[in-house]
Amino acid sequence: MRVAIIGSGPAGFYAAEALLKRADAAVDVDMFDRLPTPYGLVRGGVAPDHQKIKTVIRVFATTAARPTFRFLGNVCLGRELTVEDLRRHYHQIVYATGNEADRRLGIPGEGIARCTPATVFVGWYNGHPDYRHAQIDLSVPRVAVVGNGNVAVDAARILLRTPAELEKTDIAAHAFDALCHSQVREVFILGRRGPGEAAFSPAELKELGTMEAAVPVVAPEELAGCDGRESTGNKDKNLKILRAFAARQPRAHARKLHLRFLVSPVEVIADAAGNVAGLRLEKNRLEARPDGTLAARGTGAMEMLEVGMVLPAIGYAAERIAAVPYDEKARIIANEDGRVVDPASRAVIANEYVVGWARSGPQGLIGEHKRASAQVVGHMIADGAKLAPRPLPHRDAIVALLRERGVQPVSFSDWKQLDDVEVARGARRGAPRDKIVDVEAMLALLGQR
Ligand code: NAP
Fold it and tell me: Which residues lie closer than 8 Å to 334 by C-beta, 6 or more apart?
């Protein structure tokens, strides 16, 4: 069986490994990525001060070293390659394209300068080629980060880290330079629901108490509503951490990270120059939904928070890809348990599968997708066994087709060359790597431009 996996992030690599290690099936895997570099979210999303999480790429590199695996980078589905091409050259297709779009607040003023989705900020500091020219102006003293998830925590932490804390990481050089000159002194993380409903992982929340020059600030009254409330698991752990933060005496002069709850932005306010001057917030209360979960409801009480930048970090969504069935409501690739379906009829589209965030939406930590991808591979093998054998063009025909279209795919050994260059550049500042952030520069290094 020959399988195309579209996307080289964690879910794609977990699917590749699950396919290639099976003893009951002989599978060849071609993994495509629109970038010349592999690893998706591990490279472009995981925060630079979380190097330990990135060690998972060693496992992915082992998969890539299998003789039946091929990486074809710098090939974009929907641009140089169509779904029809894939259907012709492969028995099965796995979409592992992740979530590259961001969710919007949908409030007045959201589009003004210095109101920047967290996707952009994260891509910028991680050296993602799409965001290397993003306008991130750190001349402002106060920033609001909207949302109570781990992305909000990442964004706030990176804004408040010192140069010494960032220097030895793989942060993009342009972001490191900008952060070295940052005027940001206070960051506000804003949750629309209460502390007991926050989506932070306890470990991420706790880390906020260990920054070199910034302290978390929680007003005790923010936690008052949680006294005596029953919580379990992560929620309970988060409440304990927040209570410990609230009991601290803020160090004088320290940069501050304020954690605020039960507030929703209703308008981004601009100054005369059209930049963010503040965020109008509505105070919320919690109301039980019929299913027992708690929803935020506006009380009508307003407040103005003076900030010079707003970073909404309220979740991601899958981008639509031409000819790939899309679920408008969930903003994912339409699927039933990883089998791609027609969004209207829910009929299964044979031989097409989806893994990772493109399947589930932006949920679950990286490691949690290992099992989920393996489960989809189980469906693939079971479905594949029922299919009549179908002869395909030669395995190299896809490369010839791409070359005809003027695209030179980047192989895994090409990537290793880029990797060596990045690692050598990083060594100069004692960092694990200094990323090349420009696709043209990558291709030039490989002698392709
Ligand atoms: P998330 O965990 O789903 O959090 C999104 C947050 O945005 C929630 O607090 C949500 O509040 C809030 N929100 C949604 N719509 C809103 C609105 N209109 N106004 C105000 N707030 C709104 O998403 P994420 O932070 O983007 O993270 C995505 C996934 O990546 C998660 O699984 C996360 O754990 C993972 N991740 C992990 C790490 C790590 O382990 N270090 C780092 C980054 C990301 P409600 O709860 O009220 O909806």
Answer: 325, 326, 327, 340, 341, 342, 343, 346
